[in-house]
Amino acid sequence: MKKYLLSMAVLLSATLFTACDDKDNGKNSYVIPVAHGAYVLCSGNTWSGINGSLTYIDYVSGTSANDQFYAKNGRTLGGTPNDIMIYGNKMYITVTDENTVEVVDAKTLSSIKQIKLTDLMGKDKGVAPRRLTAADGLIYVSTYGGCSNTSDPETWAITTEGNGYVAAIDTISFSLKEIYTAGSYPEGITIAGSYLVVANSDYSAVTKASIDLINLKTKETKTITDSKITNPTSVAVTVSGTDIFVLDMGDYATVKGGIRVIKNSGSVTSLFDCTNATFVGHNIYAANCTYGETVDHFMVYDLRTNSKRDYPSGVDKFYYPNVVTADPITGHIFVASYSENADYPNTPNYSANGYVVEYDENGKMLKEYSCGVGPNAMAFNMSYEEIIY
């Protein structure tokens, strides 16, 4: 199972906007971001016939509610929802098995549009949407496209011939603005200035894994390959644009997963081992749990001090934690995991509801929440409020 990093949109959303405004009545004001809750996207289990779902964690009540997309719209997300992003007043969800991007109101969860990518991009290019990022009024969606040759997930790994794609879609008209050709089985994407950065996983085949730097205007592509890049699934770029951070899942055998750093010089180094990670602000939130193992802690790596701390989970064990992230406003840390399989102790149950544990910014456990089957991504519900004084 692949797990992911982040885009710089997460970091930017954490910025505290303050502004003074001299009103005609002599009053001043400033705007602050306010955190309301968290959405947990759950992939379900295609092989067990369990569709994906959306769980909401309400900060005020301290409770979680499952199946919120279904409750609002009377239909499920479908098979294998893979990524979630809030951009502006809309929420976007990629659904891999359905070849769709669901667009909903970020506050009410009412469906606005279901984008069928095989119609928008073509049957060969719109197959298996994976990851999301956004910039300048456009959302970007990576797809396996021609790599998979079919919409049947069972055949995706048979071949790594062909290329994947990234679609640029207008957030108002939902029209297709551009299609960029990526490498083999593209996963995580981000925008860095005038470049689209793409992690081409090669579906863990370890033969054509790469990072693409695609010029958004000219479509010229610089492809980075290195022996340390074997199965990249997510990318992030520092604000200065000097370093690219890559979550590489390894080969699930001899090559361990971890964070790789690509310097401006082109050199690639390994930062630390992990199986999933998210960048928020100046921190990397991560866990290291290889298949068939459990972990009793998570990690926070501070990019300012280049130091890593291990935090105890506060629960018995995590049974493959798929998400380790933080609310960019409150700094609270969230770890989402599968539940234990009662029939096979110390292994995850891929067909049962998972759970999410919330910690404060110092790693102190606060609360545990239930969520749907297969939690695999999170987004945070926030708003901006004007304070007048």
SSE inventory with pairings:
Blueprint: H1 8-13, E1 29-42, E2 53-58, E3 63-65, H2 68-73, E4 81-87, E5 90-95, E6 100-105, E7 111-116, H3 117-120, E8 129-135, E9 138-143, E10 165-170, E11 176-181, E12 186-192, E13 195-200, E14 210-215, E15 221-224, E16 232-237, E17 244-248, E18 258-262, E19 268-273, E20 276-280, E21 283-287, E22 297-302, E23 307-312, E24 319-326, E25 333-340, E26 348-349, E27 353-359, E28 365-373, E29 375-388
Antiparallel strand pairs: 1-2, 1-29, 2-3, 4-5, 5-6, 6-7, 8-9, 9-10, 10-11, 12-13, 13-14, 14-15, 16-17, 17-18, 18-19, 20-21, 21-22, 22-23, 24-25, 25-26, 25-27, 27-28
What is this entry, summarized?
The chain has 389 residues and is mainly beta. It has helices at 8-13, 68-73, 117-120; strands at residues 29-42, 53-58, 63-65, 81-87, 90-95, 100-105, 111-116, 129-135, 138-143, 165-170, 176-181, 186-192, 195-200, 210-215, 221-224, 232-237, 244-248, 258-262, 268-273, 276-280, 283-287, 297-302, 307-312, 319-326, 333-340, 348-349, 353-359, 365-373, 375-388.
Provide an overview of this structure.
By secondary structure, this protein is mostly beta strands. 4% of the residues lie in helices and 48% in strands. It contains 3 helices and 29 strands. Strands 24, 25, 26, 27 and 28 form a 5-stranded antiparallel beta sheet that branches. A hairpin with a 2-residue loop joins β8 and β9 (138-143). The longest helix is centred in the first third of the chain and has 6 residues, at 8-13. It is globular, with a radius of gyration of 20 Å. The N and C termini lie far apart (51 Å). The model is unreliable at 1-20 (pLDDT under 50).
